């Protein structure tokens, strides 16, 4: 069987088929500025074929817990916004791994605090580290304080 040669420009349907991402999600990515299309003479959206790599990268980043805003910020920092090179991917991988390590530490701390709360239910600002970590509200002085605004 002869291997199909991918055209330089692909439709949203083909992009969806190649990445496994729903057309509606691809439109959402475009609305958020993560990917860009051009209109052909028939006014249909066309994407450069190398956008497949960017959509794949977005999927990986989302699976590892990054928000679309974080991903957009990373993509905007790439030397060439439209193409992701192996070097770009390696640099992103290192940064994302560091972020994941931080998140793991934070979540482990939260899990350990949660363990103290299980079966307690006091939700005391003085006692509960989950509700008031490091007594942040105490630093604001005596009296009532809002937790968030
Ligand atoms: S609910 Fe009581 S210590 Fe957190």
TrEMBL record:
Q: Give the PANTHER family listed for this entry.
A: REDOX-CYCLING DRUG-SENSING TRANSCRIPTIONAL ACTIVATOR SOXR, REDOX-SENSITIVE TRANSCRIPTIONAL ACTIVATOR SOXR
Which lineage do the record's taxonomy fields give for this organism?
Bacteria, Pseudomonadati, Pseudomonadota, Gammaproteobacteria, Vibrionales
Say which domain of life the source belongs to.
Bacteria
Record keywords: 2Fe-2S, DNA-binding, Iron, Iron-sulfur, Metal-binding
Please verify whether the record's keywords include Signal. no
| GO terms for biological process, alphabetical | response to oxidative stress
Specify the species: Vibrio spartinae
Report what the protein is called: Redox-sensitive transcriptional activator SoxR
Under InterPro entries, the record lists:
DNA-bd_dom_put_sf, MerR-type_HTH_dom, MerR_fam, Redox-sen_tscrpt-act_SoxR
HTH merR-type domain residues: 9-77
One GO MF term attached to the UniProt entry: metal ion binding
| SUPFAM superfamilies (UniProt xref) | Putative DNA-binding domain (SSF46955)
């Amino acid at each position: 069987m002869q291997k199909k040669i991918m055209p330089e420009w692909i439709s949203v349907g083909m992009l969806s088929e190649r990445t496994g991402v729903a057309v509606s999600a691809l439109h959402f990515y475009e609305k958020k500025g993560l990917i860009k299309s051009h209109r052909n003479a028939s006014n249909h959206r066309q994407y450069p074929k190398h956008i497949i790599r960017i959509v794949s990268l977005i999927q990986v980043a989302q699976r590892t817990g990054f928000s679309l805003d974080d991903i957009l910020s990373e993509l905007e920092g790439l030397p060439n916004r439209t193409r992701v090179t192996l070097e770009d991917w390696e640099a992103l991988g290192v940064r994302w791994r560091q972020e994941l390590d931080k998140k793991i530490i934070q979540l482990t701390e939260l899990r350990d605090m949660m363990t103290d709360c299980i079966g307690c239910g006091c939700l005391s600002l003085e006692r509960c580290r989950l509700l008031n970590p490091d007594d942040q509200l105490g630093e604001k002085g005596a009296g009532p304080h809002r937790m968030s605004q």
